[in-house]
Design goal:
The chain is an alpha+beta fold. The chain has seven helices and eleven strands. Helix 3 packs parallel to helix 6 and helix 6 packs antiparallel against helix 7. It is globular and about 45 Å long.
Length: about 240
Amino acid sequence: MSTGEPETDPSLAGFLSRASVDRTVFELRPDYRALLLAVDGIACAAGGAGSEALLQRAEAAAREATADRPVEELPHVAAWREAYRAFGAKPQRTRNSLEALLRRAPTGLPRVNPLTDIYNAVSVLHQIPLGGEDLERYQGPPRLVRATGAEPFDTAADGEAVVEHAEPGEVVWCDDAGITCRRWNWRQGRRTQLTSDTTAALFILDALDPFTDDRLQAVADDLLAHLRLLAPDARVASRLLAS
Protein backbone atom coordinates (compact mmCIF):
# COMPACT_ATOMS: atom_id res chain seq x y z
CA MET A 1 0.00 0.00 0.00
CA SER A 2 1.38 3.40 -0.86
CA THR A 3 0.46 4.74 2.59
CA GLY A 4 2.93 2.24 4.03
CA GLU A 5 6.05 3.48 2.17
CA PRO A 6 8.83 4.22 3.52
CA GLU A 7 7.65 5.63 6.85
CA THR A 8 6.00 2.39 7.99
CA ASP A 9 6.31 1.95 11.74
CA PRO A 10 7.13 -1.65 12.78
CA SER A 11 5.10 -1.53 16.00
CA LEU A 12 2.04 -0.20 14.18
CA ALA A 13 2.51 -2.77 11.42
CA GLY A 14 2.68 -5.49 14.07
CA PHE A 15 -0.60 -4.30 15.56
CA LEU A 16 -2.30 -4.31 12.15
CA SER A 17 -0.90 -7.76 11.32
CA ARG A 18 -3.18 -9.21 14.00
CA ALA A 19 -6.33 -7.51 12.69
CA SER A 20 -8.88 -9.78 11.04
CA VAL A 21 -12.25 -10.09 9.32
CA ASP A 22 -14.15 -13.28 10.12
CA ARG A 23 -15.04 -15.54 7.22
CA THR A 24 -18.73 -15.27 8.13
CA VAL A 25 -18.56 -11.57 7.31
CA PHE A 26 -17.03 -12.27 3.92
CA GLU A 27 -19.77 -14.84 3.33
CA LEU A 28 -22.26 -11.97 3.66
CA ARG A 29 -20.31 -9.70 1.30
CA PRO A 30 -17.38 -11.29 -0.56
CA ASP A 31 -16.70 -7.86 -2.12
CA TYR A 32 -16.00 -6.25 1.28
CA ARG A 33 -12.60 -4.66 1.86
CA ALA A 34 -11.28 -2.83 4.91
CA LEU A 35 -8.25 -0.61 4.64
CA LEU A 36 -6.76 -0.02 8.10
CA LEU A 37 -4.53 3.01 8.64
CA ALA A 38 -2.67 3.33 11.97
CA VAL A 39 -1.08 6.69 12.76
CA ASP A 40 1.00 7.65 15.81
CA GLY A 41 2.45 11.01 16.80
CA ILE A 42 -0.63 13.15 16.10
CA ALA A 43 -1.09 16.66 17.48
CA CYS A 44 -4.89 16.83 17.31
CA ALA A 45 -5.31 20.30 18.82
CA ALA A 46 -3.23 21.91 16.08
CA GLY A 47 -5.68 21.44 13.21
CA GLY A 48 -8.78 23.53 13.93
CA ALA A 49 -8.59 25.98 11.03
CA GLY A 50 -7.69 23.35 8.45
CA SER A 51 -10.40 20.95 9.55
CA GLU A 52 -13.06 23.69 9.37
CA ALA A 53 -12.17 24.49 5.77
CA LEU A 54 -12.24 20.78 4.93
CA LEU A 55 -15.68 20.36 6.50
CA GLN A 56 -17.03 23.24 4.43
CA ARG A 57 -15.66 21.60 1.27
CA ALA A 58 -17.35 18.35 2.26
CA GLU A 59 -20.68 20.07 2.90
CA ALA A 60 -20.56 21.66 -0.55
CA ALA A 61 -19.64 18.32 -2.15
CA ALA A 62 -22.56 16.58 -0.41
CA ARG A 63 -25.01 19.20 -1.65
CA GLU A 64 -23.72 18.74 -5.19
CA ALA A 65 -23.82 14.93 -5.01
CA THR A 66 -27.45 14.91 -3.87
CA ALA A 67 -28.70 17.75 -6.07
CA ASP A 68 -30.22 15.39 -8.65
CA ARG A 69 -30.91 12.23 -6.62
CA PRO A 70 -31.68 11.18 -3.05
CA VAL A 71 -28.88 10.08 -0.74
CA GLU A 72 -29.98 6.45 -0.72
CA GLU A 73 -29.47 6.21 -4.51
CA LEU A 74 -25.78 7.10 -4.39
CA PRO A 75 -24.00 3.86 -5.44
CA HIS A 76 -21.90 3.26 -2.32
CA VAL A 77 -24.74 4.22 0.02
CA ALA A 78 -27.04 1.80 -1.79
CA ALA A 79 -24.44 -0.98 -1.50
CA TRP A 80 -24.18 -0.46 2.24
CA ARG A 81 -27.95 -0.50 2.61
CA GLU A 82 -27.92 -3.94 0.99
CA ALA A 83 -25.14 -5.09 3.33
CA TYR A 84 -27.15 -4.00 6.37
CA ARG A 85 -30.19 -5.92 5.18
CA ALA A 86 -27.98 -9.01 4.76
CA PHE A 87 -27.42 -9.30 8.53
CA GLY A 88 -30.93 -8.23 9.51
CA ALA A 89 -30.52 -4.49 10.15
CA LYS A 90 -33.04 -1.99 8.84
CA PRO A 91 -31.04 0.69 6.97
CA GLN A 92 -33.83 3.25 7.17
CA ARG A 93 -33.59 3.07 10.99
CA THR A 94 -29.86 2.47 11.52
CA ARG A 95 -27.99 4.22 8.75
CA ASN A 96 -24.39 3.50 7.84
CA SER A 97 -22.03 6.30 8.85
CA LEU A 98 -21.63 7.61 5.29
CA GLU A 99 -25.37 7.98 4.75
CA ALA A 100 -25.81 9.59 8.17
CA LEU A 101 -23.16 12.22 7.41
CA LEU A 102 -24.47 12.91 3.91
CA ARG A 103 -27.95 13.54 5.34
CA ARG A 104 -26.55 15.98 7.89
CA ALA A 105 -24.33 17.86 5.43
CA PRO A 106 -26.97 20.25 3.99
CA THR A 107 -27.56 21.76 7.43
CA GLY A 108 -23.98 21.33 8.61
CA LEU A 109 -21.69 18.45 9.49
CA PRO A 110 -20.89 18.00 13.19
CA ARG A 111 -17.90 19.80 14.65
CA VAL A 112 -16.33 17.44 17.20
CA ASN A 113 -12.55 17.83 17.34
CA PRO A 114 -9.98 18.36 14.56
CA LEU A 115 -9.13 14.67 14.17
CA THR A 116 -12.75 13.52 14.00
CA ASP A 117 -13.69 16.45 11.77
CA ILE A 118 -10.96 15.51 9.28
CA TYR A 119 -12.04 11.91 8.87
CA ASN A 120 -15.74 12.85 8.69
CA ALA A 121 -14.97 15.34 5.93
CA VAL A 122 -12.85 12.83 3.99
CA SER A 123 -15.66 10.28 4.35
CA VAL A 124 -18.16 12.67 2.74
CA LEU A 125 -15.78 13.92 0.06
CA HIS A 126 -15.01 10.37 -1.12
CA GLN A 127 -18.41 8.84 -0.28
CA ILE A 128 -17.07 6.02 1.88
CA PRO A 129 -17.80 4.93 5.48
CA LEU A 130 -14.75 5.87 7.54
CA GLY A 131 -14.23 5.44 11.28
CA GLY A 132 -11.54 6.64 13.67
CA GLU A 133 -10.55 5.07 17.00
CA ASP A 134 -8.06 5.93 19.74
CA LEU A 135 -5.36 3.32 19.27
CA GLU A 136 -4.06 3.58 22.82
CA ARG A 137 -7.46 2.53 24.19
CA TYR A 138 -7.52 -0.73 22.26
CA GLN A 139 -7.17 -3.97 24.17
CA GLY A 140 -5.95 -6.49 21.63
CA PRO A 141 -6.29 -6.30 17.84
CA PRO A 142 -9.36 -5.10 15.90
CA ARG A 143 -11.62 -7.84 14.59
CA LEU A 144 -14.75 -7.70 12.43
CA VAL A 145 -17.08 -10.54 13.43
CA ARG A 146 -20.71 -11.67 13.65
CA ALA A 147 -21.68 -10.97 17.25
CA THR A 148 -22.75 -13.70 19.67
CA GLY A 149 -24.87 -11.23 21.62
CA ALA A 150 -22.66 -11.37 24.72
CA GLU A 151 -20.12 -8.70 23.70
CA PRO A 152 -20.40 -5.45 25.71
CA PHE A 153 -20.77 -2.09 23.96
CA ASP A 154 -19.90 1.06 25.93
CA THR A 155 -22.24 3.82 24.75
CA ALA A 156 -24.53 6.59 26.01
CA ALA A 157 -28.31 6.97 26.18
CA ASP A 158 -30.07 10.18 27.25
CA GLY A 159 -26.71 11.59 28.30
CA GLU A 160 -25.90 8.67 30.61
CA ALA A 161 -23.23 6.01 30.15
CA VAL A 162 -24.72 2.59 29.47
CA VAL A 163 -23.51 -0.83 28.37
CA GLU A 164 -25.49 -2.46 25.57
CA HIS A 165 -25.08 -5.73 23.69
CA ALA A 166 -25.27 -6.38 19.98
CA GLU A 167 -27.91 -8.63 18.51
CA PRO A 168 -26.72 -12.16 17.67
CA GLY A 169 -25.43 -12.22 14.11
CA GLU A 170 -24.89 -8.47 13.96
CA VAL A 171 -21.65 -7.42 12.23
CA VAL A 172 -19.43 -5.63 14.75
CA TRP A 173 -15.87 -4.39 15.13
CA CYS A 174 -14.43 -5.47 18.48
CA ASP A 175 -11.28 -6.02 20.49
CA ASP A 176 -10.60 -8.19 23.54
CA ALA A 177 -12.63 -5.86 25.81
CA GLY A 178 -15.78 -5.67 23.71
CA ILE A 179 -17.41 -3.93 20.76
CA THR A 180 -15.78 -0.81 19.35
CA CYS A 181 -18.34 -0.20 16.57
CA ARG A 182 -21.81 -1.70 16.11
CA ARG A 183 -23.53 -2.70 12.86
CA TRP A 184 -20.36 -2.62 10.80
CA ASN A 185 -20.05 1.17 10.66
CA TRP A 186 -23.16 2.52 12.35
CA ARG A 187 -22.18 3.65 15.86
CA GLN A 188 -18.79 3.78 17.55
CA GLY A 189 -18.33 3.16 21.26
CA ARG A 190 -17.22 5.65 23.91
CA ARG A 191 -14.19 3.71 25.13
CA THR A 192 -12.13 4.13 21.97
CA GLN A 193 -13.55 7.41 20.64
CA LEU A 194 -11.13 10.07 19.41
CA THR A 195 -10.62 13.14 21.60
CA SER A 196 -8.54 16.30 21.49
CA ASP A 197 -5.93 14.40 23.54
CA THR A 198 -5.59 11.51 21.08
CA THR A 199 -2.05 11.03 19.78
CA ALA A 200 -2.41 7.61 18.11
CA ALA A 201 -5.38 6.59 15.98
CA LEU A 202 -6.71 3.71 13.94
CA PHE A 203 -8.79 4.60 10.87
CA ILE A 204 -11.02 2.01 9.19
CA LEU A 205 -12.08 2.58 5.58
CA ASP A 206 -14.97 0.33 4.50
CA ALA A 207 -15.53 -0.48 0.82
CA LEU A 208 -18.04 -2.51 -1.16
CA ASP A 209 -18.49 -2.79 -4.92
CA PRO A 210 -18.71 -0.60 -6.97
CA PHE A 211 -16.03 1.19 -4.89
CA THR A 212 -12.72 0.11 -6.45
CA ASP A 213 -9.39 -0.66 -4.78
CA ASP A 214 -7.84 2.34 -6.55
CA ARG A 215 -10.47 4.64 -5.06
CA LEU A 216 -9.96 3.05 -1.66
CA GLN A 217 -6.24 3.75 -1.81
CA ALA A 218 -6.91 7.33 -2.93
CA VAL A 219 -9.03 7.87 0.19
CA ALA A 220 -6.25 6.57 2.43
CA ASP A 221 -3.72 8.80 0.72
CA ASP A 222 -5.97 11.85 1.05
CA LEU A 223 -6.68 11.15 4.72
CA LEU A 224 -2.99 10.73 5.44
CA ALA A 225 -2.16 13.97 3.62
CA HIS A 226 -4.54 15.87 5.92
CA LEU A 227 -3.17 14.10 8.99
CA ARG A 228 0.35 15.08 7.92
CA LEU A 229 -0.70 18.72 8.27
CA LEU A 230 -1.29 18.01 11.95
CA ALA A 231 1.83 15.89 12.37
CA PRO A 232 4.43 15.94 9.58
CA ASP A 233 6.55 13.34 11.40
CA ALA A 234 3.73 10.97 12.29
CA ARG A 235 4.51 7.26 12.15
CA VAL A 236 2.23 5.25 9.88
CA ALA A 237 1.29 1.72 8.86
CA SER A 238 -1.53 0.38 6.70
CA ARG A 239 -3.08 -2.95 5.80
CA LEU A 240 -5.80 -4.07 3.41
CA LEU A 241 -8.14 -6.84 4.59
CA ALA A 242 -10.01 -8.61 1.79
CA SER A 243 -11.51 -12.02 1.12
